[in-house]
Amino acid sequence: MSSYFRRQLADYVEYHRDPWNCAMHVFGIVFLFLAAVLPISVWSITVLGIQTSAATIAVVPVLIYWLLLDFALGAAILGAAVVLLSAAAAIVGHVTTAGMWSLTGILIVVGVASQIIGHRVFERRQPALVDNPTHLLLGPMFVMAKLLIALGFRRDLAIIIHGHPQGATS
Prior knowledge:
Layout: H1 3-13, H2 19-41, E1 44-47, E2 50-53, H3 54-69, H4 71-94, H5 97-123, H6 128-131, H7 139-150, H8 155-162
Helix pairs in contact: 2-3, 2-4, 2-5, 3-4, 4-7
């Protein structure tokens, strides 16, 4: 884990102390990711003889960024991205164009609303990305870090997020 990522995560954590806000972020991030990839999942592209979607190509740069920040978290997010990209492909394969755009709109509204409610109602603080726009890309890293900590992994991240290793006695 780079010192840059450690500093950014520590700053991000200050905006995400309330457990309900964190829960809202899980849903918001998943919904907003799906909303971002659904419309471009329609476009099929052939790259090096392999057929894929524009959505897959579009997420590669941010996946590389996450892998560079922290390989284990990035790999976990890569796994989640594969699942979500597969879900998007299945959705666009079974709905009309109007249905896809309707679902995209709903996902955006629900995703943004969950973020706003999480911050305004539970955290009583503005979102981290208002003060630092790069935090937009830290949300998935934070959520995945919380998941790995809850599963008993990444004590190093638990120290940053919780101030002490998960499961440590005081």
